[in-house]
Design brief:
The chain is mainly β and 161 residues long. It has one domain: OB fold (Dihydrolipoamide Acetyltransferase, E2P), CATH 2.40.50. The chain is 0% helix and 23% strand. It is built from no helices and ten strands. The chain has strands spanning 3-5, 17-19, 34-36, 61-63, 77-83, 92-97, 102-106, 116-117, 145-146, 153-155. A four-stranded antiparallel β-sheet has the order 7-6-5-8, with no helix packed on it. Strands 1-2 form a two-stranded antiparallel sheet. Strands 3-4 form a two-stranded antiparallel sheet.
C-alpha cells in the first residue's frame, strides 16, 4: 500500500499523506458477500440521543469476511480481486476457491491478483496461506491471529499490523 504525500496548501495538510489506492483492482463489491449495515447515529433502541456528536458520514455496506478459514483445508484458491473496504483500514481480497465458492479475506501484504493460496496444516509458508501457528517458523511475518483455536481471527487484522 503506497502513500502519496500532499502538497502543503494549508497548515493542516503540511506533512500529510494518503493512500494512492493503486493496489485496488475492483470498484464494486461481490453482491453475494455484502450485508446492510445500519448507522445508529448515537441513538439507542428508543431513538433517543445517548452519545452526542455522532452520525453523518457516507452510507456503507458490510462485507462478510471469513476470519475462520478452517473449513477449506486442502482446497486451492486464487485471489481474484483486491478491494477497498470502508469498514476497516486493511484492504480485502476476493478469493475464488476451486469448488466455486467465493469469500473475502483480509489481504496480506505481498499478495496480488492471481496469487494462489491454500489453507490447512500442510500449506506452504508464504503470504496469504492459512496454517496453525505451530507449523510456522519463528521470525515469519503473520497476521489475523486467533486467540482460541476455532475462534476466528482477533489480533493483527488492521493495515500495518
Amino acid at each position: 500500500m503506497a502513500l502519496r504525500k500532499l502538497r502543503p496548501v494549508t497548515p493542516s495538510s503540511r506533512g500529510q499523506s494518503v493512500s494512492d489506492f493503486a493496489e485496488i483492482t475492483r470498484s464494486t463489491p461481490e453482491k453475494s458477500l455484502i450485508r446492510p449495515i445500519n448507522s445508529r447515529g448515537g441513538r439507542n433502541a428508543s431513538g433517543k440521543i445517548t452519545t452526542r456528536h455522532q452520525g453523518g458520514g457516507h452510507k456503507r455496506a458490510y462485507r462478510v469476511i471469513d476470519f475462520l478459514r478452517n473449513d477449506k483445508d486442502g482446497v486451492p484458491a486464487v485471489i481474484a480481486q483486491i478491494e477497498y473496504d470502508p469498514n476497516r483500514s486493511a484492504r480485502i481480497a476476493l478469493v475464488h476457491f476451486a469448488d466455486g465458492e467465493k469469500r473475502y479475506i483480509i489481504a496480506p501484504l505481498g499478495v496480488e491478483q492471481g496469487t494462489k493460496i491454500e489453507n490447512g496444516p500442510t500449506a506452504d509458508i508464504k503470504p496469504g496461506n492459512n496454517l496453525p501457528l505451530r507449523n510456522i517458523p519463528v521470525g515469519t511475518m503473520i497476521h489475523a491471529i486467533e486467540t482460541r483455536p476455532g475462534g476466528g481471527a482477533r489480533i493483527a487484522r488492521s493495515a500495518g499490523s
